[in-house]
Amino acid sequence: MEITRFENLENLRIDLNLRLSLWKSLQEWKELVAQWKVTAFSNIDAIVMKEKIEMYSKVVMKCSKNMPPNAVMDELRVLVFEYRDTLPVVMAMRNSKLKESHWGELKALIGKPFEI
């Protein structure tokens, strides 16, 4: 007896898994950002931040390739890419070789006091 292949069901499963991944990723990303915003800069792990940005960028790219455009995907893309664009600055500022004099120069350059 030949096994019937339910291609429509398989396609539906793939689509639903992508959508679930997208929604979960948006929720998790918002939670991460909320946590980063209340964490002292000196306590932010730039390596973990980089890994999370890469992970969620991959989700955005995978969904972009396999799904029609939608508002949730656009929102996640904007949020993740905003942090991705600032990551080099965060990585540089988390350099353990920065001395107090460097921080003084940065504070003067920015023009606003901030906690290290």
How would you describe this structure to a colleague?
This protein is mainly α and 116 residues long. The protein has one domain (7-110). It has helices at 7-38, 46-66, 71-93, 100-110. The radius of gyration is 20 Å and the shape is elongated. The protein starts with 6 loop residues before the first helix and ends in a 6-residue tail after the last helix.
How many β-strands, per DSSP?
Answer: 0
Number of separate helices: 4
Which strand-content bin applies to the residues?
Answer: under 5%
Q: Determine the structural class based on helices, strands and strand pairing.
A: mainly alpha
How would you describe the shape? elongated
Number of domains: 1
Helix content class: over 70%
- How are helices and strands ordered from N to C? HHHH
* Spatial separation of the terminal alpha carbons: 70 Å
Question: Radius of gyration over alpha carbons?
Answer: 20 Å
Structure characteristics:
116 residues, mainly alpha, elongated
Provide a concise account of the structure shown.
By secondary structure, this protein is an all-alpha fold. It has four helices and no strands.
